Amino acid sequence: MTVTHHLRVHRSDEELAREGQLAWRLAEIAADPVEVDDDVADMIINRVIDNAAVAAASLTRAPVSAARQQALDHAVSISGAGATVFGCTLERRTSPEWAAWANGVAVRELDYHDTFLAAEYSHPGDNIPPILAVAQHVGSEGRALLRGLATGYEIQIDLVRAISLHRHKIDHVAHLGPSAAAGIGTLLGLPAETIYQAVGQALHTTTATRQSRKGEISTWKAHAPAFAGKMAVEAVDRAMRGETSPSPIYEGEDGVIAWMLDGPDASYEVPLPGPGESKRGILDSYTKEHSAEYQAQAWIDLARRLHDERPDAADPANVESIVLHTSHHTHHVIGSGANDPQKYDPTASRETLDHSIPYIFAVALQDGGWHHVDSYAPERAGRPDTVALWHKVTTAEDAEWTRRYHSEDPDEKAFGGRVVIRFTDGSELTDEIAVADAHPLGARPFGREDYIRKFRLLAEPVLEPAEIERFLDLAQRLPELTVDEVRQLSIVATRGVLAGAPAPKGLF
């Protein structure tokens, strides 16, 4: 049965016992030796495939190349086998924290993997690179890796359900540092005491502002979760050496809640698995069919449907205005409510266009679909008829869509909204969509075959056919993998692919 943990700030003179701290509860969950349910195991396999798919598609992009070069410029540490780096040969290893860094950037670069949205938002697949890197380094079997990943997903999703970070302009990876540290703790079978110290350190070092997702969005957007994963690996290493961390990290008088979140009078109710309860959080998350911010997924699906039903709406000469009535989050983060002029700038970065629903809706409406490269190309963004239509698209907050966005009932939780297109002849078109087609409640929910199809689509330009089959075979046998097979759970680029990617030099 789920247990609700009451979380509040405590004065220093209250001397909050360790057992009453959230970090300790997370550590207890991570140390609980519960096995992974079959349906959870199946979904973890899906997400391992999904992560590799989006990493393959980003192998030659500059941020990924830079992170990969940083990792490869570091040798394997002396007390382990090291970890693989996406794209490189399986024999080419680096230290696990740097593998977590490089692979984390590759996974996040295209904003194309799984998501969970509640009080906060997240990409829980970001847990996979650091936990897998440690598994390869220390020599873990597939069953241990599976349990570690179940913990990482569970804890991040539990934190996201209860604690809003973005409301206080704190980046959402502050929930990832603790979840990845806890997942590594489960993987290694560490005691709660050690995991507790690692969780505290991981949180302490991964709190940063949301400026990374504001205005002209930089390449750091993809690096932020990779940094959290790297910090989680280092936090576990430090805790295993007997070192301690700030405490109580959440509840302290000068802790995260008191000074970065809702303040000294704040309280939260955090839902957590009880002792012996299966970790099933991953089943409440969902992946992306399209390479764009999750709140854009349903809008792309609606736009491509309208492309077929009302092709006249794609011509700016016919359109007076397009208003997307949607949730507070969509309006203020990726909509016109953000008040970011960059969201309407044809020369904006890919990272910025990825967070501009006016741009995304306009392009999907004109093209009848979405492509992870072509839809962001400078020539696509600068097309005059697209710019004209794009600048007629605005968003508006709608109380009902906001309520549904935050609903705890999965049957009514929604990430879309209602579009009103006013034509120059005075007529109007109104339509709506609640969830993306690929969502579990959508028109075409993603299953194993869809994850494999997505992997093939994104991997075929950069992986040999035999390599695609090799990886898919390993991933689908994840719970039974041997130590050697876990160390092969990576993707190797076709000869020459990485040679054509940027290879920047830095300090190392």
TrEMBL record:
Its EC number is 4.2.1.79. Residues 21-268 form the MmgE/PrpD N-terminal domain. It catalyses: (2S,3S)-2-methylcitrate = 2-methyl-cis-aconitate + H2O. GO terms for molecular function: 2-methylcitrate dehydratase activity. Gene3D superfamilies: 2-methylcitrate dehydratase PrpD. SUPFAM superfamilies: 2-methylcitrate dehydratase PrpD. Belongs to the PrpD family. This is 2-methylcitrate dehydratase. It comes from Microbacterium lemovicicum. The lineage of its organism: Bacteria, Bacillati, Actinomycetota, Actinomycetes, Micrococcales.
